[in-house]
């Protein structure tokens, strides 16, 4: 059983750690904290303050992070991995033959 949060609507530390891991995943995927903040729908300063632990976060931020990575709130808080994206398909043209008819 999880420890109770310190305030209503708050997050316990393991949940914060799981959400921070999801934000780092988004950062690796998108390449910029500005893009992460845009996808999550919060200011970059809020996202970074949550990531470095100077802000405790809240359920609204948790829901937004879960939505951004494609997880339910419960799965995001529990530390489930985000769904893997299918690899990008590359269309390969058939090789051109030199010379006459084939």
Question: Strands, helices and their partners?
Answer:
Layout: H1 13-30, H2 33-40, H3 44-51, H4 59-69, H5 73-78
User: What's the N-to-C terminus distance?
Assistant: 70 Å
Strand content: under 5%
Q: Which of globular, elongated, flat, extended, rod-shaped describes the shape?
A: elongated
Percent of residues in helices: 40-55%
Task: State the CATH topology of the domain at 13-78.
Answer: 434 Repressor (Amino-terminal Domain)
CATH class category label of the domain at 13-78: Mainly Alpha
- As residue ranges, the low-confidence spans are none
What class, by secondary structure content?
mainly alpha
Number of strands: 0
Rg from alpha-carbon coordinates = 20 Å
The name of the CATH architecture of the domain at 13-78 is Orthogonal Bundle
Mean pLDDT: 85
